[in-house]
Amino acid sequence: MAGTSVISTLSKLAHDAGRHIRQRIHGQSASFTWPLRAAIDAERHVIATADAGAISYYQDASGHGRPLVLLHGIHAAGSAFEMRTLFHAFRGERPVYALDLPGFGFSQRGGMRYTAQTYVRAIEHLLRHIANEREDQRADLVALSLSCEYAAAVAAEFPDMVHSLVLISPTGFDRREPRVREGTPKWLKAVAHAGGELFFDALVTRPSLKHYLRKSFAGSIDHSLLEYSHATTHQPGAHHAPLAFVSGELFPAGDPQQAYGRVKLPVLVMFDEDPYTDFTGLRGFVSQHDNYQIMRVLRTRGLPQIEAADRTIHAVRTYWDRIEAEDTGERRPALRDTHAHA
């Protein structure tokens, strides 16, 4: 009993210290009371799942034809807001869905373990829901950064539900030192788990978020993205999924290029420069996989769908027109190793 009392006291002291530090970091009470606004001005729905929690997605079903599914990146401030330019560009033309991945946006935060499979299963659940609503039509997927690896896993496992992939600034094609995937250092896990909210709070102050966003833009940052990033990271439970990412638990096991190689569907890779990864292995990979095309969106740094929205949208639309034409037997020139200029 005495030992339990000591542990309880130490726990309370740690909690109180953490609360005061958080108040100093944010300059206000650490109780996050303001509501999160919608990332996209569209209907929002929730699917309850056993293995990915409650997942939220935005939908505009007014268009006709093949469904489009948009997947944001994985980082401290991830949300469907990152994909809003593509959502607005294609809404009305075709059914469009933008998912808040587990632990982000309006999807469930906390109360579960976050792993790479959590995200693969979440995407699968949304695709099955769409297939039931849209007469079993296969969807086109557009994914950003680490979510590209999840999208590839889904496309390889469920080709009957996916028509094509567009991978924007995908992870997994760099030749630098191996990133944290398996065998995460114990010290890093200790920081992520023991430091918890304090570590996260220091990461998501407005100056910190602005610093990291500057790295992802060749020009001026998108201030609306900065404001939404600040808002979404200051919701209850916002730290759970990002800390799992920092500790290495959200990276799929194994060689990512082997995983990409299992995809047999049409794939377009869009990239330029990215401060968090590089693409030195991309051209060698594409030369061995005829179903992959590459498009370099010049003068962008990881978020071309925001910084070069018009060029990105035009390239994606052109790519889809080409593969739809091939589906019907019409031949059009490929986009292999082309550039999207200003």
Question: TL;DR of this structure?
Answer:
By secondary structure, the chain is α/β, with parallel strands linked by helices. It is 41% helix and 14% strand. Strands 1-2-4-3-5-6-7-8-9 form a nine-stranded mixed β-sheet, with helices on both faces.
Q: How would you characterize the overall build of this protein?
A:
- By secondary structure, the protein is an alpha/beta fold.
- 41% of the residues lie in helices and 14% in strands.
- It has one domain: Alpha/Beta hydrolase fold, catalytic domain (Rossmann fold, 3-Layer(aba) Sandwich).
- It starts with a helix and ends with a strand.
- The N terminus is likely disordered.
What are the SSEs and their pairings?
Elements: H1 2-26, E1 43-48, E2 54-60, E3 68-71, H2 84-90, E4 96-100, H3 116-133, E5 139-144, H4 147-157, E6 162-168, H5 186-203, H6 206-215, H7 223-232, H8 240-246, H9 256-261, E7 267-271, H10 282-286, E8 292-297, H11 304-307, H12 309-327, E9 338-340
Parallel strand pairs: 3-4, 3-5, 5-6, 6-7, 7-8, 8-9
Antiparallel strand pairs: 1-2, 2-4
